[in-house]
Amino acid sequence: MRKISIFLILLIFVTSCGQRTGKTNDFNKFFQKFNSYKANAEITVYGNKGTSKYKVVQYFMSQSKLRIEILEPDNLKGNIIIYNDNNKILYNPLINEKIVLPKGQDDKFTYMGIITKEVFFNENTKAEKERKGDIEYIKIKAAIPESNKYKKTAVLYMDEKNYYPVLMEVIDEMGRTTMTVKYSSFELNPDFDESIFTIQ
Question: Fold for domain 31-192?
Fold first, then answer.
């Protein structure tokens, strides 16, 4: 009887490890083919003076090519932000005004909730399952580069079935959420016309 019990325990352990490895392999494959994406994003920023909300469309081609189109609020609607080889361009098409900011380190990751391989898929990231309501997600926790007391870590929740991102939370050093980003209409590796990452 003792031998049978030990065998059953080992069988359960091996089976569970095999399932975990399979999921891990699928997860790894997703990030290996993750090169670019397009998504709608609803961003909520929590600050000392209140809450700010934005709706944007994100076009991410690489760490150095990014386009953000602002849909809401109304006073910013139509504005476009472009990162191209460390240059940041702010463009207002309504008045045809373009502002080119100087090169330098910029916080594009937390600025509008951009998802990058460099942050969410490296040796320091941790992935686990977590249930929210009736839905089970893959949860990835990662340190934010150039972090400060307001943005220490980022948590990304991904659909367990296809690994598409659903929600990002930015956490401060006290463990409080300072920003949430809800993703929809996510497209993996779309065919971009590279001209959208420039403004003449």
Answer: outer membrane lipoprotein receptor (LolB), chain A (2.50.20)
